[in-house]
Amino acid sequence: MSANAKWLNKVKWDEHGLVPVIAQEVGSNDVLMFAWMNREALQKTVELGEAVYWSRSRKKLWHKGEESGHTQKVHEIRLDCDEDVVLLKVEQTGGIACHTGRHSCFFQKFDGGAGGEWQATEPVLKDPESIYK
Amino acid sequence: MSANAKWLNKVKWDEHGLVPVIAQEVGSNDVLMFAWMNREALQKTVELGEAVYWSRSRKKLWHKGEESGHTQKVHEIRLDCDEDVVLLKVEQTGGIACHTGRHSCFFQKFDGGAGGEWQATEPVLKDPESIYK
User: Fold this and answer.
1) If you placed Cys at A62, which of A55, A76, A115, B131 could pair as Cys (CB 3.0 to 4.6 Å)?
2) Residues of B with CB below 8 A from A100's CB?
3) Which of A119, A125, A127, A121 is nearest to A102 (CA)?
4) What is the pLDDT at residue B77?
5) Run means of pLDDT, 10 residues per run, chain B, 133 residues
6) What one-character DSSP code corresponds to residue B105?
7) pLDDT tens digits for range A22-72
8) Whole-angstrom distance between the N-terminal and C-terminal Cα of chain B?
9) What's the predicted TM-score (pTM) here?
């Protein structure tokens, strides 16, 4: 599969050569996480059938689960109307997408009472210490 | 509600003062769209109980549905583990989130056959011409 493939050119990469990516769980439809991909990451995701992101903090490709084992098997890849956001439908190994050991990264819920605050709601399924040795 | 509220300070706004936002439909859990918010947009979303985004192209607040009538009633607001992405759970008026007249903006599906291509899959529920007069 060529890095100059037409389907890769259709994606509108931003000024940093990146595109935002939403990972959604097949079946439950839960939104698991949000990350970024560059051209190579999207190409590798397709080739591997597993999510490969671009880590902006580490400035390198990040094969999700490479350390934790919590890989994401890709069932479907979608592009939005403006062609600048990608949606992955994935099967989440271990049922844990978040580095905190939770199912989803979106575990802080807004509570509008008393001026407003964010409250952690989802259970930690596995101690992060035991995930990342 | 103060613009200096602690809950607004908890969000890690990017270098442009924005945060990525995913809108997900209550019930179906379908991912409807992706957009951006600045501080004022998130504050107004909470005050109004309807999604207000920041339009990067028009450089102004965008009360979703202000033209189309396809507003989004906000049921829940979540923040991710890194506090730099927001997830809205919304009730989508008219069942149409996309400006193309489709339910969701993520209607282009990757087809890996023959070198790869994106194929439009979801039906147009309403002619955009009749949505935007």
Assistant:
1) A55
2) 81
3) A125
4) 98
5) 82 97 98 98 97 97 96 98 98 97 98 89 94 81
6) S
7) 999 999 999 999 999 999 999 999 999 999 999 999 999 999 999 999 999
8) 35
9) 0.96
pLDDT value, residue A2 = 64
B76 Cα to chain A: minimum distance (Å):
7
Report the C-alpha gap between B88 and B4 in whole angstroms.
21
- Report how far residue A95's alpha carbon sits from residue B20's, in angstroms, rounded to the nearest whole number: 24
Distance from the Cα of residue A100 to its chain's centroid: 14
**Considering CB atoms only, which of A28, A81, A118 is closest to B105?**
A81
Indicate which of B118, B119, B121 best probes the interface with A, i.e. most A CBs within 10 Å of its own CB: B118
Residue B4 corresponds to which tokens in the numbers above?
A: 């200096």
Q: Comparing C-alpha atoms, which of B42, B44, B105 is closest to residue A79?
A: B105
Amino acid at A73: K
**How close A127 comes to chain B (CA, Å)?**
15
Q: Three-state SS for A48? A: helix
Taking Cα atoms as reference points, which of B51, B74, B65 lies closest to residue B131?
Answer: B65
Chain B residues contacting A, CB < 8 Å? 1-2, 5-8, 10, 20, 22, 24, 28-31, 33-34, 46, 76-83, 85, 87, 98-100, 102, 105-110, 112, 115-118
